[in-house]
């Protein structure tokens, strides 16, 4: 019967297999001689008993066969009635509770090893020789420092140098089990927080908003840098007075309004003022409550006069601008030939790369223009002296 089973399996092999093993023979014949045999015809000639024996010898791991043929268990008893799943589960649980457990050969006792304890084999001669050959001369100064270092300092040094990933298996398990570590250290130890360094708080901004508004309205030539940073809870009326005076001002160059509580309504007033002012070089409105759409409006206002060289508007109410807003800001920046620095948190690499490349081109162009102007002035002075 086993020969018949092997004969059927060999005849059902593919043509590729027979070509690769042309030297293999079965019953004194090459496998190519059995290619034309019909397996169904051979199976039809078997009796039911022989087919049953053949089914029992089928490989149970062959997932191409149905489960009924992969299972070696056969129940020949007649059913006693319909299947009742609840009663079947109760019967299985009852039988499991009533069946006693197999007694252990050696009862369990805490702290007592049952069986033979595994002892690692001693290192071979080749391993000992390899360990002895690894010698590094660090010098007297480093040798003294390492010999006097504590275990915690050695561990910190290994972590800094990246040696913590070079532990072998025994060292790794020893570190997990805290073998040789004092109480409070190791993986299960308590992490101690370092004492924070005290930094002095920023001094309060002593700028008087009402006085600076009057100076802007009067176009005071001494007021070049206006700083309202950290002056919170400014009213909408004061912002309006300041921004309405900006178009006529011809001396103010830096406008800093960081952390002043500015909202979209005041920012729109600022955008209208930037479209008419020709002297501002730096505008800073960071840490306020300006929405992304109003930031786009501020960026567009810079294109009217093209005099602002630095614009900062990060850390607003919405931390994420979104792809659409970032692409719109990128297009606006690429149209601005005078902007040199932009303070905005951009999430997408495409926007960051395009803006950085354009700002670098603006810086290079201004540097070339400045170089040409200096050269022209130098040669012009030489010509005047020659005359």
From TrEMBL:
Tell me the SUPFAM superfamilies matching this sequence.
RNI-like (SSF52047)
GO BP annotations of the record are: actin filament organization; myofibril assembly; pointed-end actin filament capping
Q: Report one GO cellular component.
A: myofibril
MF term (GO), any: tropomyosin binding
Extract the InterPro entries matched here: LRR_dom_sf, TMOD
UniProt keyword annotations, A-Z? Cytoplasm, Cytoskeleton
A Pfam family assignment:
Tropomodulin
Q: Where in the cell is it found?
A: Cytoplasm, Cytoskeleton
Name of the protein in question: Tropomodulin
């Amino acid at each position: 019967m086993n020969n018949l089973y092997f004969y059927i399996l060999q005849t059902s092999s593919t043509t590729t297999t027979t070509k690769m093993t042309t030297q293999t023979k079965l019953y004194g014949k090459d496998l190519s001689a059995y290619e034309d045999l019909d397996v169904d015809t051979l199976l039809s000639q078997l009796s039911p008993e022989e087919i049953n024996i053949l089914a029992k010898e089928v490989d149970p791991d062959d997932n191409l066969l149905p489960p009924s043929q992969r299972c070696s268990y056969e129940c020949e008893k007649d059913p006693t009635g319909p299947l009742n799943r609840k009663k079947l589960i109760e019967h299985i649980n009852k039988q499991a509770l009533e069946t006693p457990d197999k007694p252990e050969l050696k009862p369990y006792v805490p702290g007592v090893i049952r069986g033979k304890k595994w002892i690692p084999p001693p290192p071979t001669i080749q391993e000992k020789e390899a360990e002895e050959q690894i010698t590094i001369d660090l010098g007297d100064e480093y040798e003294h420092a390492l010999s006097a270092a504590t275990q915690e300092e050695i561990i910190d040094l290994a972590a800094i140098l990246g040696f913590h990933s070079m532990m072998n298996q025994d060292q790794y398990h020893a570190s997990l089990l805290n073998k040789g570590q004092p109480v409070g250290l190791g993986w299960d130890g308590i992490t101690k927080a370092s004492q924070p360094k005290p930094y002095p708080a920023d001094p309060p901004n002593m700028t008087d908003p009402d006085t600076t508004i009057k100076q802007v309205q009067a176009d005071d030539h001494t007021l070049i840098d206006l700083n309202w940073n950290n002056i919170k809870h400014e009213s909408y009326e004061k912002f309006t007075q300041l921004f309405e005076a900006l178009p006529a001002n011809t001396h103010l160059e830096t406008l800093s309004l960081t952390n002043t509580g500015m909202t979209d309504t005041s920012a729109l007033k600022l955008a209208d003022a930037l479209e008419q002012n020709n002297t501002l070089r730096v505008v800073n409105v960071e840490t306020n409550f300006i929405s992304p759409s109003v930031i786009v409006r501020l960026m567009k206002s810079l294109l009217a006069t093209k005099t602002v060289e630095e614009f900062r508007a990060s850390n607003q109410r919405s931390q994420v601008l979104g792809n659409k807003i970032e692409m719109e800001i990128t297009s606006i920046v690429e149209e601005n030939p005078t902007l040199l620095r932009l303070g905005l948190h951009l999430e997408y690499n495409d926007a960051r790369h395009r803006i950085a490349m354009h700002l670098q081109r603006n810086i290079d162009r201004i540097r070339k223009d400045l170089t040409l102007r200096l050269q022209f002035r130098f040669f012009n002075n030489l010509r005047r002296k020659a005359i």
